[in-house]
Amino acid sequence: MAILEVRDLAKRYRSGTLANDRLSLSLEAGEVYGLLGPNGAGKTTLVRQVLGLLRPTSGSIHLDGQDIVANPGLARRTTGFLPQGQFDIGDVHVDELICSVGKLRGLSSSEAKRRCDELIERLDLGAFRGTTMHAASGGVRRLAGFATALVARNRLLVLDEPTNDVDPIRRQTLWQLVAEAGEAGAAVLLVTHNLAEAERFIHRLAIIDHGRILSEGSPTSLRSLVTEKLRLELVLTREVVPHRALTSEGAVGSFLFEQSALPIVSTWLADLRTDGSLLDFRIGPPSLDDIYVAAVGRPTTDRAGREKQLVAS
C-alpha cells in the first residue's frame, strides 16, 4: 500500500481558479518524490490539501490507507512538514522548538531530547541551540524548522524548498538526512528548484503546471530531454550579436548550445574577452527552466506573462 495516494484531485477556488485539475500521484515507503513547477502551478495548493489544511473540490487523498479528506486532522498530526517561508517562532529557543514539536508528535520527554540533540549535532546547530528563533539567521531558522519535520520520524515528510538560506556545508548534511529518512521507510514529498543538489536523492520527479502533472520520471530521464546541451550565462559590457550556435532562452545573457559546439563557442568567448565586451561567463548544465521548456514546450511564466525563475510557489 502506498503511504500517500492522491487520485483525481481537483481544487477550484471561489474566484473560479482551477488550482489542481484531476491530479494523481502516489508515494511508496522509502521514496523521495520531487515536485517542480513555476509560480502558480498548483504545488502549494496540493501540499495544503495533503496536510489537511484545505479541502479539495473533488478527488481523494489517502495517508496509509486512511481518508485525509474525511479526517484532515490525521495528516496534521502524523506528517512532518517544513513550509517554504521563514520559520520565526518568536522567543522560543532552537532546542526548545525541536523538543516541543517532538513531544507534540508523541515522543516521550527523554526521546524528544535525544532526537533534538542528535539533529542539532548532525546539522551543526550546537552554537545556536540557545538562540531564539526570532534572533536566529534565516539559515538557522530553516535548519531548525527542518529538524522539527524530522524529529518524530513520521511516515510522510513534506518539505518545501528545504535548502533555502542554508549554507553549502549544512546543505549537504540536510540532503543526507532526507536520504536517510527515505532509507528508514518514510515517504518524502519534496518541493524544490535545486535539481543539481537534489538529483542524487530523488527517486521520481514530476513537473506540474496549471494544476496537472505534465511529465514524471526519474531525474535522469527528465534531464535526458536536454542532456546534449549546455547553458551559457554572460556578463557583458555592451550588447553583442549572439553566435549562431547559441539559442536564446529569454533571460538577458542566457543561452543554450549543443555540447558539440563547445569549441567554437569557446573561441567566440575569447574574441569577446579580447575586444573588451565580456566581463564574465559561466558554462554549466541545463537548468530546471531548460528541462521545463523541453517537457512542455514553452518558457516558465507566471499567469501575467512575466518571465520567472522556476521556483516553488
Ends distance = 30 Å
Number of helices: 10
Please write the string of helix (H) and strand (E) elements. EEEHEEHEHHHEHEHEEHEEEHEH
Task: Provide the residue-averaged pLDDT.
Answer: 87
Which of globular, elongated, flat, extended, rod-shaped describes the shape? globular
Radius of gyration: 22 Å
Largest sheet: 6 strands, mixed
**What is the SS-derived class?**
alpha/beta
Oligomer class: single chain
Topology of helices and strands:
Blueprint: E1 4-12, E2 18-27, E3 32-36, H1 43-50, E4 58-63, E5 66-67, H2 72-78, E6 79-82, H3 94-104, H4 109-122, H5 138-150, E7 156-160, H6 168-183, E8 187-191, H7 195-198, E9 204-209, E10 212-217, H8 219-223, E11 229-236, E12 247-248, E13 254-258, H9 262-274, E14 278-284, H10 288-296
Parallel strand pairs: 3-8, 3-9, 6-7, 7-8
Antiparallel strand pairs: 1-2, 1-4, 4-5, 9-10, 11-13, 11-14, 12-13
Helix pairs in contact: 3-4, 3-5
Describe the structure.
With 313 residues, the protein is of the alpha/beta class. It is 32% helix and 26% strand. The two termini are 30 Å apart.
Provide a concise account of the structure shown.
The protein is α/β, with parallel strands linked by helices.
List the keywords.
313 residues, alpha/beta, six-stranded mixed β-sheet, four-stranded antiparallel β-sheet, 10 helices, 14 strands, globular, disordered C terminus
